Amino acid sequence: MAIWTRIFARRFGHRNLQNLVLKQTQTPLKMSEPRWNSDMSAFREEFAKAKNIVVLTGAGVSAESGVPTFRGAGGYWRLYQAQDLATPEAFARNPSQVWEFYHYRREVMGTKEPNKAHLAQLSDHLAVSVVEQKSTTSFIPWETGLRLEAIAECEERLRKQDRRVTVITQNIDELHKRAGSQNVIELHGNLFTVRCVRCGTIKEDRNSPIVPALAGRGLPDANADSSIIPEKDLPRCQKSGCESLVRPHVVWFGESLEEHVLEQTHTELGRCDLCLVVGTSSVVYPAAMFAPMLANKGVTVAEFNTEETPATGQLKYHFHGPAGERIPTALARHPSEPE
């Protein structure tokens, strides 16, 4: 039995897990027949009462910061998509190529910043008070000078009210932490940590480039230099007496999430009374199961996405559009909150 199945079956039961998996394989709703609930006013009332909020985020949040996802139409690094390179088999076959791919992603993050979904922004057009009074199914413009709170600011604000906000992210770019979020569970690890393939030593490494041999390498153009870098010149373990090859300490396709990460996630989902699912396709397991599991036990779940997902029909709310437009409104200070 997979680790994640064992951990989450303790809370939700094997039969419920099986039923949820079956629901997840159903065809999502057609865009021509929207049946989702986009009542922002109603969601805001539930938000005002929630004590333990979980924000589950995926690649869509980072994409709004210009972070390439290397998935979907046009999402190629040279001639490859992420699922072609982010595997143990790909690394064993060609560690030079895989390290070029991750080196490029590390370097790109030096040019990217958290976006409106991560951070509070100054609004432009319409007051949040309107949101409290009126339901909407389209993007709510913002009023000049009104400060809207996004994920990081919301966490800090609610902490002072003895309320908890936890980010559970599938992203490996650390944008949530850079935005100021403190309670962050990185399901798939992060780009700036490496692990020795021999001794297992895990170490943060923020060198740029991570090794001299990767300087100027990794460009995504199909005609870029792809000559093999000798393994001895690739990132190596710094532990005395080891000096073996290291790999990115991220979860690749075909690998299991770390058990302590799953245990943390299990704990946060267990006390969650409101969940926001932001910018995730709901197709990568086990994260794809989290929102439907919560909805199945009666927890309110709101999806924020530019498209429908396999989970949309199982959730109470769906807010259509970019996260940077929707999340600041959803998490803004509610009139019932203390000043």
From TrEMBL:
It is found in: Mitochondrion. Its EC number is 2.3.1.-. NAD(+) binds at residues 58-77, 170-173, 279-281, 305-307, 323. It catalyses: N(6)-malonyl-L-lysyl-[protein] + NAD(+) + H2O = 2''-O-malonyl-ADP-D-ribose + nicotinamide + L-lysyl-[protein]; N(6)-succinyl-L-lysyl-[protein] + NAD(+) + H2O = 2''-O-succinyl-ADP-D-ribose + nicotinamide + L-lysyl-[protein]; N(6)-glutaryl-L-lysyl-[protein] + NAD(+) + H2O = 2''-O-glutaryl-ADP-D-ribose + nicotinamide + L-lysyl-[protein]. The active site is at 188 (proton acceptor). Its cofactor is Zn(2+). Keywords: Metal-binding, Mitochondrion, NAD, Transferase, Zinc. Substrate binds at residues 102, 105. The keyword Zinc applies. NAD-dependent lysine demalonylase, desuccinylase and deglutarylase that specifically removes malonyl, succinyl and glutaryl groups on target proteins. Has weak NAD-dependent protein deacetylase activity; however this activity may not be physiologically relevant in vivo. Belongs to the sirtuin family. Class III subfamily. This is NAD-dependent protein deacylase. It comes from Holothuria leucospilota (Black long sea cucumber). The lineage of its organism: Eukaryota, Metazoa, Echinodermata, Eleutherozoa, Echinozoa.
